[in-house]
Amino acid sequence: MKTWALVVDTWREALARHTLLGFLIVSALFLMVLGFALNLDIVDGTLAAGTLFGKALEFHHNRTPAIDSVVVTGESIFAGMLYALGVFLAIFATGSQVPNLQHRGTVDLYVTRPVTRTHLLLGRFLGAITLVTANLVFLCGGVFLIISLKTKVWNPRFLLASGLILVVFLSYLGFMYLVGVLSSSTPLSIMLPYALYMLSVPLAAHDRIAAAMDSRLTAGIVNGLYWILPKTAEVGRDLTTYVLGKGSPTLLPLATTAAFGVACLAAAVVIFNRKNF
Amino acid sequence: MGTSSAVIEVHGVVKEFRHWRRRLRALDGVDLEVRAGEVFGLLGANGAGKTTLVKVLLGLSRPTEGEVRVRGRNPRQASARARIGYLPEGHRFPGYLTGDASLRLFGRLAGLPEIALDRRIPELLELVGLSERGRDRVGRYSKGMTQRLGLACALLDGPDVLLLDEPTDGVDPVGRRQIRDILLGARERGTTIFINSHLLSEVERTCDRVAILNGGRVLREGTVDGLTRPTQRYRLRLAGGEPPPDDKMQAIGAQVLSSNGALEVQVPDVETLNRLVDVLRAERLLIAEISPLRAALEDVFVEVVGGDEHGPGGPHPEPGAGGGS
Question: What is the value of pTM for the model shown?
Answer without folding.
Answer: 0.81
